[in-house]
Amino acid sequence: MSQAELPVDRHIETRGISKSFGGTRALSNASVSVRSGSVHALVGENGAGKSTLGKIIAGVLAPDDGELLVRGEPVSFRSPREALERGIAAIGQEPSVVPHLTVAENVLLGAEPRAFGTVRRRALRKRFEVLVASAGFDLRGDTPAGALTIAGQQEVEILRALARSAEVVIMDEPTAALSAAETAHLHEIVKSLAAQGKTILLISHFLREVLELADTVTVLRDGRVVRTGPTAGETEDSLVEAMLGQPQALTFPPKQAPRADAPVLLAVKGVQALGVAGVDLTVRAGEIVGLAGLVGAGRTELGQAIFGVRKMQAGEIELNGSPLTGGARKRLRAGVALIPESRKDDGLVPDRPIFENASLASLGGLTRLGVVTRRREQDVTRQILARCDVRARSNRSPVRELSGGNQQKVLLARMLLCEPQLVIADEPTRGVDVGAKRAIYEFLVGLAEEGLGILLISSELEEIMGLSHRVAVMRSGRIVAELAGDELNESAILTAAFGNQPRQAA
Ligand SMILES: Nc1ncnc2c1ncn2[C@@H]1O[C@H](COP(=O)(O)OP(=O)(O)O)[C@@H](O)[C@H]1O
Ligand SMILES: [Mg+2]
Q: What's the whole-model pTM score?
């Protein structure tokens, strides 16, 4: 491309930038151009090089190779201060405010001509008030900055950038540590900055957020630019595919077969219930059994019959050779847990803290742990929340502030506290993002490795194939095929699920 063709609205451009840390190549020949006044997102897996690119543009890091241009002019920043002089400011995931200074001081110090004493203080306050009003933030200038939440500290950083007339704002995972309400507010801030003509570089792994806020998106993979294009031409799936570089968007933990002598944990014998027309099925300790089939084949109904929330009309169910009887409470105490399909009526109390929602108390004594002290309960709950990888600002945040994926993880934690032996997971990853899906897969595989039995109900063939040691296929309330080893493949599952009938529109 000749110089004459350079469109004038290119605000920031990187040309062939490379950067290594020791032996790690964080960026390889990365070329990105960011239009003036656009919200430009950078997406990619962990380690793809997003932050490194953001830091190079913000003057935090120097590239090993390649060029950085601001409004068509090559620059080489030696510090963030130099980047700021060219109108570029960065807002971190962990904001860097000076905790013991006030909000107004944090925003304005260094951006002001020097003055002293009360004059300075009064001028500072006035300037701050103008700034905060124009940004529409609800911040008091005299609060110590250290007393603010992360969201508040980010607002301080944004004001600081505005006070220095920044025209480019780089945000690196700004909502990663925010609650749902704070995230919504930050989205409004991004939109309003864009409306004021600022250029925003938004690094985020929340693809929905990217699709909502950004007009352009660059996908990075292994330090390389995969593509840049309008978000209007992308979907979450298309972005994931580009990020991972392969059409199957999901990867699964390695399968470890259950021990050859693993005992039968669950035995379902001739069970009939509404929607279940006579089923025999076993699950061994350490085994993940997939339950496949079309919608309406009776999979959820079978799960409910095993858990005791669907009345059985005939047959028997045994756990470790003893009959399972009674309702869900009794079965939970016996060691059967169900992760239900719909999380709407799952018993999470939205306004109560995460900790409380996960803890034994929320289960009304439905546990096999027996009598535990409050202290031990707290220790165990904390460990289990961490193990389930619940991502929250604090375990004391209300559960409603969590994303769907994280709410699902709170339910997993609560279930684990019951020390189950058999887990029935009904569509455990429906409606959660790719990252949370992976976490849930690892969680289920980990349980099986500890010797639990898992009955996995899923409509995603890939998930069934990726996780199950054995697959039972249901059709019209019956198990019509059991597949394992060489026989286990997608086409065998589909053939069994559809039967010999001509395929109908589902
Ligand atoms: N300061 C550093 N020292 C060593 N390696 C680093 C450093 N910063 C980043 N890396 C490495 O560079 C690669 C890209 O990292 P990063 O830009 O942080 O990716 P992303 O933000 O997309 O997750 C990763 O392999 C990371 O481990
Ligand atoms: Mg990063």
A: 0.53
DSSP code per residue over 453-494:
EEEEE-S-HHHHHHH-SEEEEEETTEEEEEEEGGG--HHHHH
Q: What is the CA(214)–ligand 2 centre distance, in A?
A: 18
> What's the mean pLDDT when you consider all of the chain?
87
CATH fold group of domain 250-335+420-506:
Rossmann fold (3.40.50)
Is residue 370 classed as helix, strand or coil in its secondary structure? coil
Distance 234 CA to ligand 2 centre (A): 22
Q: How confident is the model at residue 390 (pLDDT cuts 50, 70, 90)?
A: confident
Ligand 1 site residues, Cβ closer than 6 angstroms: 21, 24, 26, 44, 46-52
Indicate the pLDDT class of residue 3, thresholds 50, 70 and 90: very low
What is the number of the ligand closest to the CA of 218?
1
Predicted local confidence at residue 363, as pLDDT: 62
- Residue 254 pLDDT: 87
Name residue, tokens 């069934």: 464
CA 419/CA 55 separation, integer angstroms: 45
Q: Where are the domains of the chain?
A: 3-97+148-244, 250-335+420-506, 344-419
Pick the residue whose CA is nearest to atom 18 on ligand 1.
Answer: 51
Token code pair at residue 14 = 């990187």
The rounded Å distance from CA 239 to ligand 2 centre is: 17
pLDDT of residue 266: 98
Greatest Cα pair distance in the chain: 88
What pLDDT score was predicted for residue 94? 67
The residue to mutate among 52, 55, 210, 221, having the most atoms of ligand 1 within 8 angstroms of its beta carbon, is 52
Query: Which of the four pLDDT bands, split at 50, 70 and 90, describes residue 283?
Result: very high
* Nearest atom of ligand 1 to the alpha carbon of 203: 21
* Ligand 1 center–CA 435 separation, angstroms: 19
pLDDT of residue 248: 45
325 vs 109, residue with greater confidence:
325
Could you identify the atom of ligand 1 that is nearest to the CA of residue 172?
Answer: 21
Burial class (CB in 10 A: 0-12, 13-18, 19+), 359: buried
pLDDT of amino acid 28: 95
Nearest CA to ligand 1 atom 13: 26
Q: Which amino acid is at 195?
A: A
Which CATH code, of 3.40.50.300, 3.30.70.1450, 3.20.20.10, 3.40.50.720, is assigned to 3-97+148-244?
A: 3.40.50.300
Ligand 1: residue whose CA is nearest its atom 6 = 21
